[in-house]
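Z., the sequence and structure:
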Amino acid sequence: MQDKTTASPTKSLFVTLKSLYVQAQQLLLDSDRLMDEQGWQSVNTYAPQGFSYLLNAPERWFARWAVRFYEPPSVSGDDLVKELKFVSVHFASDQDTEVEDPLLVAGMHVFQSAMPRERARESYEYWLCKSWFWDWGKTERTVGTWHQWNPSKPVPAANCVKSFAVPLYEIKSSKELKELVIDKLFAE
């Protein structure tokens, strides 16, 4: 019989997973605030992604990653958008990624040409936040450095996707999130 003063290993595991998800949610909300200070507004959040109800895929019964997208401020009433930025948290590996410890991946989708804001919101693909993990045999991925993917066929309108990764556990405050991620998004 389990000692009533200690949690079972299974309960501890789920408490830890819930805590990780809550911390990621708080990080994404803090990202919203910091991006808003730059004039960029959040347009969509995807979480959980990679979740499955399939009995034959138990490794996909929990969220593998979550992403938040941002659009630029309107300039002089111009309603055209040339890029969207994103901040994502990757908790575990899935079919397109290999994650040993959680990573924060941030970057931007640069469109082939400026498009109306409403169309840009519909034109990105949420899974492009995983492009940092893709090797394509051309470049070696290094945490903290930019990785660029230029699709041979626009997906659906992206000219390129640029992204970088930071170990999630290195971000312990808003100041670190700003310095390691948000400032870097605007320095490119």
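The mean pLDDT is 85. The helical segments are 9-37, 117-123, 174-187.

Let me know what you think.
H.
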